[in-house]
């Protein structure tokens, strides 16, 4: 019984990443709801939060998949939708259009990433951030935020969003910092400090470096907190369902923590 708290829908155009030729690295991207449901059936995934695919540096493409994510959620009760929003002032009109869908049946999250521009501490982004989190609070939604080491997605930057907003709105730190520095900062203290301070902070371990799931599980057991803040996520098509599942199942074992990670915490947030 697997509940997937973070995967994508939509096929991106080929793009010349890093100065190379145009490529499509997300080889398992799905263009239709029917294809997505076939994947869920093949995996045995019983619930899924589905978010627009992104990665090509054109925010319009990610926004264009909001309707597809909403269609998925309203086509099958196993699926919940996350809507793409942006803190950039240049995207204010498109974000406003997305927020108009926030109260639609099946919508359970808003997704933002600074990979396509902006920065949490940029004053120009603060009005849009305030607007996004206010709507999340109004509709009882979770805000998903991409994390990865360095630049605007570093946990030192994204942590400001937890400090500012996670007292009122659940904040899901996608990828648990996304790499060595983020993992160590979070497991070493910061993740647990936020929980102790009453912050509604959640995470998934997609993309996590090999030692991290086991270390996090050990710290949860040692500290006695955080067991209800970690969710399984495949991050398909950028992640790998089989690999992500195997690593997290090995780290959490077959007991209460595994039940929470793979099913119960998802149910608490999205059902």
TrEMBL record:
The keyword Protein transport does not apply. Residues 31-251 form the Amidohydrolase-related domain. Gene3D superfamilies: Metal-dependent hydrolases. Keywords: Hydrolase. Pfam families: Amidohydro_2. The keyword Protein biosynthesis does not apply. GO terms for molecular function: hydrolase activity. This is Amidohydrolase.
């Amino acid at each position: 019984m697997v509940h997937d708290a973070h995967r994508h829908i939509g096929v991106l155009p080929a793009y010349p990443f890093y100065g190379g030729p145009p490529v499509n690295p997300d080889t398992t991207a799905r263009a239709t709801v029917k294809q997505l449901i076939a994947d869920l059936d093949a995996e045995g995934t019983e619930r899924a939060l589905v978010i627009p695919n992104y990665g090509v540096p054109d925010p319009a493409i990610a926004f264009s998949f909001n309707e597809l994510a909403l269609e998925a959620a309203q086509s099958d009760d196993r699926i919940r939708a996350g809507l793409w929003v942006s803190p950039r002032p240049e995207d204010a009109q498109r974000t406003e259009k997305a927020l108009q869908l926030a109260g639609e049946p099946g919508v359970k999250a808003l997704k933002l990433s600074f990979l396509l521009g902006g920065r949490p501490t940029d004053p120009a982004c603060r009005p849009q951030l305030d607007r996004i989190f206010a709507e999340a609070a109004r509709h009882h939604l979770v805000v998903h935020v991409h994390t990865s080491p360095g630049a605007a997605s570093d946990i030192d930057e994204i942590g400001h969003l937890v400090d500012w907003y996670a007292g009122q709105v659940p904040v899901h730190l996608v990828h648990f910092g996304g790499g060595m520095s983020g993992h160590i900062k979070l497991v070493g203290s910061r993740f647990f400090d936020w929980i102790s301070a009453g912050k509604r902070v959640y995470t998934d371990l997609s993309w996590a470096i090999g030692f991290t799931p086991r270390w996090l599980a050990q710290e949860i057991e040692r500290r006695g907190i955080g067991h209800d803040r970690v969710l399984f996520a495949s991050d398909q098509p950028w992640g790998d369902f089989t690999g992500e599942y195997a690593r997290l199942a090995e780290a959490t074992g077959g007991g209460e923590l595994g039940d929470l990670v793979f099913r119960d915490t998802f149910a608490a947030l999205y059902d």
